[in-house]
Amino acid sequence: DLSYNNFTHQNPEQPACREIQNLNLNLFRSSSGDSNLSGVLPCRNNFKCDRYWHSLHINCGGNEVKVNGSTFEGDGQIGGGAATYHSQDDTNWGFSSSGDFTDDDDEQNRRYIATPDSSNLSELYINARIAPLSLTYFGYCLDNGNYTLSLHFAEVQFSNGITFFSLGRRLFDIYIQDKLVERNFDIKAEASGALKPVARPYNVTVTNHIIEIHFHWAGKGTTALPKRGVYGPLVSAISLNDPNFKPEKKKVVPIVVGVVAGLSLIILAFGILGWRYYLRTKRRKERGVGFF
Question: What's the pTM value of the predicted model, to 2 decimals?
Answer without folding.
Answer: 0.81
